[in-house]
Amino acid sequence: MSFFKRLTPESNSGQNNTTSEFFIGTPEAEGETTSNSKMKLAEIFGDYLNIFPELDSEKFIITGRKGSGKSAIAEYIYFSAQNEANTFCSFIKTRDVDSTKIVQLGKEAGFPIEEKLLFEWLILTKLISLITEDQSVNDTKSYKDLKIFLQRNSGLVDIKNYEIKEIVREQSLEVNIEYLKRVFSALFKRKINIKEHKAPFYKILQPLKEVVIKLLRDNIASGNEFYLIFDDLDIGFKENDKKSIENITNILRVTKDYNIDYFGKEGINAKVIILLRDDLKRIIVKHNADTAKLFSSYEIPLIWYEHDKFRSDENSVGLKKLINRRISVNFEKKGIPYDRNDSWSSLFKDEHQYSGSSFKYLIDYTFFRPRDLILLFKPLPRNAYDIPLRFHNAKSLIKSFVEELILEIKNELSSSFTEDDITKIFIALKNLKKNQPLDKADLITEFSNVHLEYDKEIALLLLFEYSIIGNIDNGEYSATKIYFKHREKRNEPCVLNFDLKFIYHKAIEEYLGKREK
Predict the structure, then answer these.
(1) Is the pLDDT of residue 506 over 50?
(2) What tens digit of pLDDT does each residue of 371-393 get?
(3) How far apart are alpha carbons 405 and 413 in whole angstroms?
(4) At CA 340, angle to CA 339 and CA 343, rounded to 5?
(5) Most exposed among 32, 311, 384, 469, judged by the fewest C-beta atoms under 10 Å?
(6) Residue 103 and residue 337: Cα distance in Å, rounded?
(7) What is the largest CA-CA distance in the chain?
(8) What's the pLDDT at 346?
């Protein structure tokens, strides 16, 4: 028994039919991969959007709003790879590699390098690390030499941000290439055309690439598969910073070259996967002509809104399947009988106040993302509600949820707006709350009244893109229609219409309403 379990008092058996000790999961998927996690990702993960079949094709860019499940997919891939003898996987977390800083320091030291080449170096050295993990090649001389090559150049292979300045100053971005020369000569029966024992890393990319491609090609018959995952691309990203945009664009271009031109055409079982927030994608495609084609060809968008399924059978909706699985785990741990076909119906009592199902009522306060539901249920153990939960319990969950949701929204908005701009936007929305539905002119005028310096129309567009506001069409001859970005269909993009009126998302309504009291 662990130290903390020994410190925990015995749970009160009288609370068995309450939500005490209920745990639906952590907002960050990484938290569900630890050995002591109460909710283990490997046990409850489901590919409800059929992402894996798409990854098995030419596609490699997974996009989605923050909280849509990108990291959960990546962590599940990584976990599963650890349990298969012939599958090898690793992350490239850009928070650990400040490429802009490396380029700048190199320039100051007289070593001009292209950022794109740095990402290529990371991909190749990570692949070598994975290739040499294969126990079956431990005694092969070329693989032994590659391991030594990695060890001799560990500073530039496993880059740490706090060491960058030291590496640039002391190593001049040079790598020891003696053991790479040996491998190259053994594989190709010719020499690398560099006489020195050391060379700048970008000068050996071509022979390094030849070595990696040759080894991967030779690996096809063995059935080995290799996967790299780029994550954390949003950290430090700013819309008005051209370097941020160019940074991600370079990663996209290099990754496309490897996935399509080198791996795909050679039939190599390797892939580099990119996780990217969809708001960053929208910014990037505006600045570079070729990136629009990249996304149209290779993107896998995580869109959880399933309009037709919601109308016909809500139990077939991916989000409900996801949350039902997590609720079921809790009922089983507490030994409480429940409906195995729909554990939600055992947790919530449907009442007339919902004007429909409790699931549809609560989901309307979210942006249709897995993280929203996890945050919504976060207070369950603390509040120890009686099971089944009543309508007033659901209202209580919503009140707590919107506070955390707004923090996430503000974090997303920080990619485009300053902190002062975000404050002004919420003040303007609060001032206009009772006047809904709103005209474009109402919002533009109020933005001016609060002295928002950001372009007013673009600000409206961004608020629509984040589903903070939506369009409402009170058609004279048809039923009222409401359009929110997070409720768009996969093949039917929801586009802002300045000629229609505007309304707020329900969570924004709830949040601003609390500030009026």
Answers:
(1) yes
(2) 999 999 999 999 999 999 999 99
(3) 12
(4) 60
(5) 311
(6) 60
(7) 81
(8) 97
CB-count burial class (<10 Å; 0-12, 13-18, 19+) for 183: buried
Q: Which of 176, 126, 130, 172 is nearest to 153 (CA)?
A: 176
In eight-state DSSP terms, residue 38 is S
Give the Cα separation of 263 and 102 in Å (integer): 28
Contact (CB, 8 A) for 118 and 94: no
For tokens 């706090």, the residue is 162
Q: How sure is the predictor about 176, in pLDDT bands with cuts at 50, 70 and 90?
A: very high
Quick check: 409 and 401 in contact, CB under 8 A? no
Pull the structure tokens for residue 29: 């998927």
HSE value, Cβ hemisphere, 13 Å, CA-based, for 110: 4
Q: Which residues contact 324 (CB under 8 A, 6 or more apart)?
A: 315, 342, 343, 344
At 85, list the tokens.
């003898």
Nearest to 456 by CA among 472, 443, 470, 469: 443
pLDDT for 247: 87
Phi, psi of 481 (to 5 degrees): -120, 140
Q: How confident is the model at residue 303 (pLDDT cuts 50, 70, 90)?
A: very high
Distance CA 345, CA 58 (A): 40
Q: Collapsing DSSP states into helix, strand and coil, what is residue 438?
A: strand
